[in-house]
Amino acid sequence: MTVRVAVLTETAPGERRVALVPDAVGRLTAADMEVLVQAGAGQAAWFPDHDYARAGATVLPGEEARTRADVVLTVGRPPVDQVRQLRAGQALVGMLHPLTDPGYAQILAELGITAVSLDGLPRTLSRAQSMDALSSQANISGYKAALVAANTLERYFPLLITAAGTARPARVLVLGVGVAGLQAIGTARRLGALVSAYDVRPETRTEAESLGASFLVLESVATATGEGGYARALTPDEQQAQQQELNGHIAGCDAVITTAQVPGRRPPVLVTAEAIKAMSPGSVIVDAASSPLGGNVEGSQPGRTTVTDNGVTVVGADNLPATMPTAASTAYARNVSNLLLHLVHDGTLTIDLADEIQAGVVITHGGQVVSPATAGLLAAAHGGEPVEPGTAG
Ligand code: NAD
What is the pTM of this model? Predict the structure, then answer.
């Protein structure tokens, strides 16, 4: 038996990534999978159809790849009307973010689709690290956020001593020192900026300092390390105290890059309108946590760049990996093909929830929401009652 894996064109506005690149096709065909590529799927990321064909994939027009597939690969979440075109028993593998929209998972379960979401991966498990798409995409996000900040700031990042005078280095503040924040620090430092950084998890201090940033210690905010090495959400009082104390630091910066996230929650607001008012004209904020749920910067709008009345440019950078689709797709393809190689045995996609990796990534199977975290959110949304098919909110 052969598992047929289809790569579809992403449909979200501005999304230029593709789930599999030609280089990764051979890894799947060598493991007895057949790769079907929707014609044009890689075009926006600069991977032409003929490269997929040369690598051993079958390029198919229109919807044929989807209908013939056992497994459909995507980067982001296909819209519900597309998901409804899948048939029971097919698998959907992508970054489905069920914790921010458990109702979507409920729909997949009702349709009998096996949903596998790379953002559920147990990231600290060493054998899962090559499948960690959150990290590979966050790396790109942090790198590009620093470049966007440097490009938007209309002064130098480095200290420059020239015959026309000396330019002082830009002062850059990075808020949130996870994978994206660390990459933003490293990139801004390589461009010569003076970088400071802040995170609620105190263990990030040594990592930030090792990349050449100074670390802000806020006296009003307690340690907020939560489960799994992530941050916990702050209480409203803690958040207000944090914002107040950060205001003074933000005012003195030329560029602020924000990357703070709390899993399954809307991103915390770290830069308030009041803080922006105190910044100098010409300064820049890149909100890399920007999303339809909100971002780290009050008033930032996903996908839009705005200039405030006091001359601060706020970039709502909602999907930076899509702006570097070649690198982002190459890394994602590596992650997703490693996950497939883990799931496919003897020509079938084998679901085994006793496996630690699968217990994290498999969201729906056999008509049920099997991810405990997602099922818990659905139950809570229905007043603690078990959720019946068809009642998803
Ligand atoms: P993330 O995207 O969830 O969040 C980014 C950063 O924002 C985090 O450092 C978080 O502490 C910070 N943050 C959240 N709320 C904040 C607030 N109110 N103020 C300031 N900062 C705030 O994080 P991530 O990049 O996905 O990394 C999360 C964790 O996973 C880290 O501990 C990281 O080391 C770990 N991780 C481990 C591995 C591994 O072991 N292989 C791989 C990837 C990530």
Answer: 0.94
